[in-house]
Amino acid sequence: MHRTQQIMIGAIVLTVALAASAQKPTVYPAKGQSASQQSKDDGECLAWAKQNTGIDPSKPAQTQAAAPPPPPKGGRAKGAVVGATVGAIGDNDVGNAAVKGAVVGGVAQRNRARGQQEAAAAQNQQAQTQQQADLGKYYKAYGACMTGRGYSIS
Questions:
Q1: SS3 content of the chain, % helix, strand, coil (to 5)
Q2: Do residues 148 and 49 touch, judged by C-beta distance below 8 A?
Q3: Is 19 in contact with 140 (CB distance < 8 Å)?
Q4: What parts of the chain have a pLDDT lower than 70?
Q5: Is 152 helix (H, G, I), strand (E, B) or coil?
Q6: 113 vs 3, 69, 91, 106, 142, CA distance in Å?
Q7: For the chain, what is the domain count?
Q8: What three-state secondary structure class fits 151?
Q9: d(Cα 139, Cα 49) in Å, to the nearest integer?
Q10: Residue 93 structural domain
Q11: What span, in angstroms and rounded, lies between the C-alpha atoms of 101 and 52?
């Protein structure tokens, strides 16, 4: 559980940090452009950035990770069967061996489920990071266009 929390906290911090850098920059007319001229330039530069980067922020990429697979089932039952079989082969207490096998099977099942959840969380975080990086490229291109048209960018 502790590792999963660390991964999730790291993903949240990284997403917030990248989101701040991937926002549309603020544009100021540096050469006395009118509001209507700025609006026209804004639209043209947004279209130019989309064309040159291939990124359309109005249509976010479908990079979200799929839902994690359902947790494995039957770990305790399989462990009990294996434990009972081992107990029967070794002339031991079959019931006691079955209980021990069920416990081991349950622990193994829980560990597999935890690993699947961590992998899904890491994949989702990676997809979000890529999406934020793409937005950063898009807005960098937009800012370059607006700067070229005589605007101050912040």
A1: 70, 5, 25
A2: no
A3: no
A4: 1-22, 60-92, 94, 97-98, 100-101
A5: strand
A6: 14, 9, 34, 11, 44
A7: 1
A8: strand
A9: 7
A10: 2-153
A11: 60
